[in-house]
Amino acid sequence: MTERFDLVIAGGGPSGAAAAWQAAQTGAKVVVLDKAEFPRDKPCGDGLTARAVSYLQKMGLAHEITQFHKISGVTVYSPSQWELSFPQRPGMPDYGRTASRAELDTMLLKHAESAGAVVRQGAEVAGPELDARGRVVGVILKNGEKVLGDAVIAADGAYSPLKRGLKIDSDYNGYSAIAIRSEMHANRPDSDRFEIYLKLLFQGDQLPGYGWIFPMGGGRFNIGLGYVNSYKNWQSINATHFFGDFLRTLPAEWELPSVEELKKNKSVRAWRLPMGFTAWPPWRPGVLFAGDSLGAGKPVSGAGISKALESGLAAGECAIAALENGGPDDFTNYQQRMEAAWGREYKRGRFFNKLAGIPKVSETGLKLLDNHTFRDFLLKSLYKKAQSPSHT
Ligand SMILES: Cc1cc2nc3c(=O)[nH]c(=O)nc-3n(C[C@H](O)[C@H](O)[C@H](O)COP(=O)(O)OP(=O)(O)OC[C@H]3O[C@@H](n4cnc5c(N)ncnc54)[C@H](O)[C@@H]3O)c2cc1C
Asked: Could you tell me which residue ranges the FAD-binding domain spans (predicted)?
């Protein structure tokens, strides 16, 4: 007989693990299905914002995450150099961290398991299982096995097979970044700052994106870049070559490996980063979308880990609340939560993303940012806003 669960979660990354941990707290019978065997890598900058750190603390991982490298602020090159600090917010850390995704995601999944969730690794979801009315009632694994539940959370990442299987049309025109990164040794001192490089030129066009160097501690650095697909020629960019060009702009005395060497040891990987809500509403009967499958990446910065944790926790909580009060046909409680948390910011993000795709606009924006009078004015108002509880 097929085993039934209250909640079936496809994907055990940060959004799926957070959803599972949250739902399991209530005593619900939860299963997480991930196609990978952990520890597994995920192409990422490995940067945890202060808000991501705060969600990990809320999940009871405050002590465990002290092992990760601490980040005290951000150095931006636009191309002139300026400094940003994390805002001081009551009850919130004023620092970030960097954590390899192999370690972070394994820790999160174990945490969900110790809260009572069943974790099945090497379980690849092929698509949704529907009832006669089209409601999602479980998932079908690649080996043909069905895993059934009262509700399903699609936490299966940027290329979500559940979303594809359901042919989801979003009410909002979310968008995507293409990002590429590698971790490597650099012959330079360790640092406690995220470094962001805003000048990113492709055939003379300023791109809507940035390059980054995130210190991991112990002489290791995560280096990468990303750009959004509102730039009309984004498909002409060979991400690997472009990344190689970026590495060559960095100081020769750092003795960084070439992109060819990085390719050889398979540490350079590109991935999509969906933003601005690519699945809206964030649910359909029987299923809720969280993290990258929702298109939850933060507009402008693309920080997706804190958003995956926040939407995962909310999806876990709202799914159980709806199941207890009305059933799986209606998850508008989750929609309202997400709209209230990020609706305005993501709407602005969709608008600015379109503008930023025009190279002349991007170039002008960068010139303005490079002007310290304009920048001081802008940062003052952003800093004020950042101190409001909902901002990352
Ligand atoms: C290059 C790059 C750099 C980034 N840098 C940062 C950064 O520095 N900081 C930050 O905050 N965000 C960053 N992001 C964004 C961040 O990585 C994502 O937003 C975040 O991983 C989303 O978490 P998730 O749990 O929704 O999805 P994922 O982390 O992608 O997890 C999805 C899980 O689903 C599993 N899965 C997929 N398909 C199936 C299937 N068919 N069956 C079963 N399981 C399946 C996968 O194995 C995976 O474990 C970056 C993104 C990219 C591409």
From this structure: 6-192
* The CATH classification of domain 4-69+99-169+278-350, taken from the options 3.30.365.10, 3.40.50.2300, 3.30.70.240, 3.50.50.60: 3.50.50.60
Q: Is 338 helix (H, G, I), strand (E, B) or coil?
A: helix
pTM strictly above 0.85: yes
- Are 284 and 133 in contact by the 8 Å Cβ rule? The answer is no
Q: Which residues pair with 48 in a beta bridge?
A: 97
CA of 304 to the centre of ligand 1 (A): 8
8 A C-beta contact, residue 49 and residue 43: no
What's the mean pLDDT in 86-105? 95
Q: What are phi and psi of 271, to 5 degrees?
A: -155, 160
Distance 386 CA to ligand 1 centre (A): 25
- In this structure, the residue with its CA closest to atom 52 of ligand 1 is 44
Q: Could you tell me which residue, 266 or 139, shows the higher pLDDT? A: 139
As a whole number, mean pLDDT of residues 42-50 equals 97
Q: Where are the domains of the chain?
A: 4-69+99-169+278-350
Cα(303) to centroid(ligand 1), Å:
11
Confidence of residue 384 (pLDDT cuts 50, 70, 90): confident
Torsion angles phi and psi, residue 379, rounded to 5? -65, -35
